[in-house]
Amino acid sequence: MKRTAFLFVSLAMALTLGVSGVAAQRIQPSGKKIGRDEHGHAIFQVQANGIEIGCKLIGSGEPLVMIIGLGQTMEQWPQEIVETLADQYQLILLDNRGMGHTTANDATFSVKLFAEDVMALLDALQVKKAHVLGYSMGSTTVQRLLLEYPQRFNKAIIHATSTDGSQVARNVAKAMKGKVPDNSTVQRQIEATTHWRTPLDKLPSIPNPVMLVVGTADAVVGVKSSKTLASAIPGAWLVQFKNATHFLMYEAPSEFARIVLTFLETDATVRPK
Length: 273
What we know:
The protein has helices at residues 2-23, 79-86, 111-124, 137-148, 169-176, 184-194, 224-232, 248-251, 253-265; strands at 32-36, 42-48, 51-58, 62-67, 89-94, 130-135, 153-159, 210-215, 237-241. By secondary structure, the protein is α/β, with parallel strands linked by helices. The protein starts with a helix and ends in an 8-residue tail after the last helix.
């Protein structure tokens, strides 16, 4: 009887490890390799959603998609954050449509289109489920992803976000002046941001664990939107960094990476027995 129980437990453990191994299976690059960044990471262009999407795969573990903000490229994630997160997760960094190594076409820019780009990239990489982190404009893309494709994501980090783009588009453009290129692509991104409105009535239906991160001195998007989302999404975390601005993750990269890891590693769901 003891031997049978031992074999049963051993089999259960083996199956569990097998499942975990599949979940954390290393993502294989897709598309064409076009070079390397200054840290030696390969850069790829993947054909998806009618364009070529520039991306990098860094680290190992469960996949974590990272979506950068308006006028920025994937190279502008703080290196300390990338290195810290890549120790435990396989990062999927991408350039937004029309920026960096990602091309654009005549399609009108919108948050919906940005979300479709992300999904097309995940499909091309054969990623069935991932964590996701979005900053500023990228955070609105994460909102859209959770509303439209919640089953494709595990946990989500929404950093420096907005529920009404019409109120922040000018602030974003002003804050980014001199920090991002002043070109037609950026103007198209600003236009897309201007039209963003969070469907507040749908937020309670989001099943994913979500963490909102915002600086109390963020003069671009403010803190109200993050508080609104945190109060409407069941079980959402709200983390406020005192005196931090819209550039919180650049001001406190170590602390930002630490809180992201804490959230990803914590099971905050209590299951009834």
